[in-house]
Amino acid sequence: MTDKCDIVLDINGQQYRVTIEPRRTLADVIRDDCGQTGTHLGCEHGVCGACTVLLDGDPVRSCLMFAVQAQGRKIRTVEGLTRGTDLHPLQRAFIAHHGLQCGFCTPGFLMLAAGMLERNPDISDDALVDVLSSNLCRCTGYENIIKAVRAAAAEMRSAR
Amino acid sequence: MKPAPFSYHAPVSLDEAIRILADVAPRDGRVLAGGQSLVPTMAFRMARPAHLVDINGIVELDRLTIEDETIRIGACVRHAAFHRDDVPGPTGRLLRDVVRYIAHYPIRVRGTFCGSVANADPASEWCCVTAALGGKITARSGAGTRTIAASEFFQSVMTTDLRDDELVTDVALPLLPEGTRCGFAEFSRRVGDFGIAMLLATYRIEDGLIADPRVGLGGAEATPRRLAEVENVLVGREPVPETFAQCADVAAEVVAPLEDNNNTIAYRCGLVHTLTRRALEQAR
């Protein structure tokens, strides 16, 4: 049973049939086998949050689960944030508030914030900062990331 | 940074899981629950299990039930479940307070209460809660089911009374009576880091005096435990700063802290002193 297994992953509504070893993490399979390289891998042990994706709407570290465990679940990555050519409010806010510098941590921050705000745009400011403390930005651009997420939250609240 | 190969088993019933575990446990088989501690350990290749028995597909383990003044937390119940107000009364408020200290939100979405207890990391908040409240751990194997008291369960750093072929099916916690006051204080260097010390205090007030106190210590020693010496100070005393100050002195005296590169014994004793007072005052 160390043999490879055939699985189907649902990423951003598209089905990917892949043949993988059980030891492959979800992050690696999303990138290497499904070609969706927007999801970044930083620390590969659950500390940095760069690989955050949504699993049935909840933010998870995709380096801390195996791809075989994600069968039958809906996976959403940064590629799934846009609607056609329209950027997600979070993406627009990150541009407007200079929430990204080198951009490596950005997909993780976007998916973390998207998971929280789409469930609860009324999240308190303190709770928002607490949630964002989950991910690391080595450019230390935290102030602008927080500004951007606050702005997107306000926009998502008023759009309801 | 990539886990070593293993055989993957995904049982869909508890019986099936127990059968597979009985078969693979002697051949370095391990249970995979939330994986938020096991998977990083495998990524570092500090753990190289030959078999993983993934219990995430077992619906009957994903249950949190309340009956007979007891909360029964099934093996697949995630940390994040405790953000919701499913658990009533003082225990519910306590669990909602404590869960905020466990790593970060995305980790809480996957990690499980029982997995944390089975892993027995000294810095685990749930281990501290289980020890302080006198929780009971239910373990099942091919040989049957047994219930283990928290005081027997935690044996050393990441070492428990569990046998390799046993699966923790649930942890039971008592529902504290209405009117019980609870406090929890923890110190870590950054939000979400491993706690260096944590204190949990609960007590009731009867005729203005402290009754039925529980004081649990986690993070500082090899295993979480109740501090009977501190509880003895509290019984029948007024909940005033002088009482709590005396408790802090006693706690710092009786603790036998772990020492590591960043935390000397004296430093941890100091933390235990401060946190004891904070937890008791928070409960007031």
Write a concise keyword list for the protein shown above.
heterodimer, A: 160 residues, Ubiquitin-like (UB roll), DNA polymerase, domain 1, 2 domains, B: 284 residues, alpha+beta, Uridine Diphospho-n-acetylenolpyruvylglucosamine Reductase, domain 2, Uridine Diphospho-n-acetylenolpyruvylglucosamine Reductase, domain 3, Enolase-like, domain 1, 3 domains, 10 helices, 14 strands
Q: Can you characterise this structure?
A:
The complex is a heterodimer of chains A (160) and B (284). Chain A has 160 residues and is α+β, with helices and mostly antiparallel strands. Chain A folds into 2 domains: 5-79, Beta-grasp domain (Ubiquitin-like (UB roll), Roll); 89-158, DNA polymerase, domain 1. Helices cover 34% and strands 16% of the residues of chain A. Chain A has helices at 26-33, 89-96, 106-119, 125-132, 142-158, and strands spanning 5-11, 14-20, 52-55, 58-61, 74-76. A 5-stranded mixed sheet of chain A has the order 2-1-5-3-4, with helices on both faces. In chain A, α2 packs across α5 and α3 packs parallel to α5 (142-158). The longest helix of chain A is centred in the last third of the chain and has 17 residues, at 142-158. With 284 residues, chain B is α+β, with helices and mostly antiparallel strands. In chain B, α5 (113-119) packs across α6, α8 (228-234) runs antiparallel to α9 (241-254) and α9 (241-254) runs antiparallel to α10. Chain B folds into 3 domains: 7-54, 2-Layer Sandwich (Uridine Diphospho-n-acetylenolpyruvylglucosamine Reductase, domain 2), CATH 3.30.43.10; 60-174, Uridine Diphospho-n-acetylenolpyruvylglucosamine Reductase, domain 3; 181-283, 2-Layer Sandwich (Enolase-like, domain 1), CATH 3.30.390.50. Chain B is globular, with a radius of gyration of 19 Å. The longest helix of chain B has 19 residues, at 265-283. In chain B, a hairpin with a 2-residue loop joins β4 and β5 (70-74). A 5-stranded antiparallel sheet of chain B has the order 4-5-10-6-7. In chain B, strands 11-12-13-14 form a 4-stranded antiparallel sheet, with helices on both faces. Chain B has a 3-stranded parallel sheet with strand order 1-3-2, covered by helices on one side. Chain B contains 10 helices and 14 strands. Classes of the chains: A alpha+beta (160), B alpha+beta (284). At the A-B interface, β4 and α3 of A face β1, α2, β3 and α4 of B.
